[in-house]
Amino acid sequence: MKKNFRKMTKKAKDFSAHVYKILSKEPTKAFNYKQIAAIIEVNDTQSRNEIIKELGILKKAGKIEETERGKFKIVSKAEYYEGIVDMTSRKSGYFVCPELEDDVYIPFINLNHALDGDKVKCYIYNRRSSRKPEAEVLEILERAKTEFVGVIDIQKNFGFVTTTNAKMYTDIFIPKNEIGAAEHGDVVLVSMVDWPKKADSPFGKVIKVLGKPGEHNTEIHAILAEYGLPYDFPIEVEAYANQIDTSITEEEIAKRRDMRNILTFTIDPKDAKDFDDALSFQVLPNGNYEIGVHIADVSHYLQEGTILDEEAYERATSVYLVDRVVPMLPEVLSNFACSLRPHEEKYTFSAIFQLNNKAEVVDSWFGRTVIYSDQRFAYEEAQEIIESKSDIIPAHISLTGKEYHVPKPIVEATLKMDELAKILRRKRMNAGAISFDKVEVKFNLNENAEPVGVYFKQSKDANHLIEEFMLLANRKVAEFIGKQKKTFVYRIHDEPNEDKLFGLQNVISKFGYNLNLRSKQDISTSLNKLLTEVQGKKEQNMVDTLTIRCMSKAAYSTNNIGHYGLAFDYYSHFTSPIRRYPDVMAHRLLQFYLDGGKSVSEELFEEKCMHSSDRENLAAKAERDSIKYMQVKYMQDHKDQEFLGVVSGVTEWGIYVEIIENKCEGMVRIREIKDDYYTFDDKQYALVGEVSKNLIQLGDEVYVKVKNADLVKKQLDFHFVRENK
């Protein structure tokens, strides 16, 4: 496969990986800087100078040699590389290494006890013959995880634990004296202690009994344990948090900009418990608008070097499961001291902007403040003001359940900020931002946390109002520090994967949609066009999901490459320190630099960024698993019901069907489709009937019934009823 090097921009500062890859690809050939620049597709003087500089650094490090003046080649070495194992569900894996152009296949026999995600040293062979290369694991450098969740099977003198993770190809042997209080069939958390060279399975011990399979709390705790996420705070951390002085003092107010007399309010989900952002609004004498984005001043209470800060850093994020929140901070801070509740004075960290009628930022100010929130709105209440332009909130929308009148200044502020937010959003879209308004699946839960209904959450103008001003604050804070060339925590997002975009094109063309992949601007324009055109169509959720999968993952880094999805050159996370540790770091760094501090260690903060990105990814996986679990639980009670669904995936073993009314997805095995003998045609991405030549393909509507709902594996199997023709 030909490597498509992303076109580098002037702001990119690291060419080393690109240069090294080019030279590694052709180890016998020497390149000069002009040839490398041509391959990377850069032609400006700054980029060429960066390439020359990187060649010098790589030469000094002994990774490349200068064969003649200005020409460089890779230093020949044995084919040993360090990288990560990415397991498949079929007991084989792939070796992922930044130095290699493609992932390398690892047969099961060559894994040598390596597991999914492990950092390993591999030997690559067949690299210069016509056969595809393969890898063999020589050494496990670092285990990705040593704790696993599974069901224990207890025999007379031992037990073994089987996990539900399809990528975990072995069970774990538990000696009799390490079973502890576990009973046969329990869901347990086990620690892998050893894996003797000649043993088929690793040895482990039970460290926690989570409960019986299928029980609600057992499965939720199993999800958290699977990803190494906590569900309660250590006693000493709770005790430390409870003794923090959370009073508002005159002494502290004197150090801050006092905003208590300026109209301020919050807009949040109706079930929110922590309010970490508020907006203030006033019209200035010059006719411009002063809009304050006020964020809970978590770093005032969360002091570096304390056990509370260590716990918050380790967690790095709050985890939002379907039925509960596992907070980053103890409740005394997240729901009380740092929550910007109405009619209470609060310490905040603020970004205050002066905007004109064109939503242009005329002036900005950053610093610590004290505010007083005059009103708390739910999104639905703010939306009612925007839509009706009225001061009346009807009883069925009101948070109190009673009709009430909103003070005129708040109505006027809401309408003006909505107007400005729409201009900001339009500018963003015109600059190439991508509008992902993906439908969120939510559940109505009864008092036992059982799902009794499904509904879909979609963003409206009130959501966009808050979003645009949060984006403005995040962008301007990053820009303020970034232009000073000081170390900072950026939220970065690379350009989409080109191969995945071609794959998306193949799928959506079956529905009559097209992408223009000629340039960066064309790609974002046509992606937005696709996401708009697909709204309300049966294939919307599938297309939205596939489009998101084409995107690079956003991450935290001190190396600013901009944010592709938002079309920002500078972007950070500043607005949610109650639930994200990178925002806490951003607050601390901003205050340090406002006080005249010199640039901090990039290496130290890059390590913290990587940790935060890793924890965010684990939290996202846990959140997805909890949604799958609830969907399966919901469908358990609807086994006799016929559902209309859309074919969302086609494989050689069957079709995946997503039910239109609740977005639950399950599998129909190929043998379940009885009206013909079907085989998989990979060119048409369809099942083809041998006799009838009937096609079942992506986007087709079919009726299904629930065959099996497995709560432990979080999987749905469907009976095929008929096509909707």
From TrEMBL:
Role, per record: 3'-5' exoribonuclease that releases 5'-nucleoside monophosphates and is involved in maturation of structured RNAs.
Enzyme class: hydrolase
Keyword Nuclease among UniProt keywords: yes
SMART domains found in the cross-reference section: CSP, RNB, S1
UniProt keyword list: Cytoplasm, Exonuclease, Hydrolase, Nuclease, RNA-binding
Every S1 motif domain range: 640-721
EC number: 3.1.13.1
rRNA-binding among keywords: no
Annotated source species: Flavobacterium difficile
Family (UniProt): Belongs to the RNR ribonuclease family. RNase R subfamily.
Entry protein name: Ribonuclease R
Catalytic activity: Exonucleolytic cleavage in the 3'- to 5'-direction to yield nucleoside 5'-phosphates
Principal cellular location given in the protein's record: cytoplasm
Subcellular location field: Cytoplasm
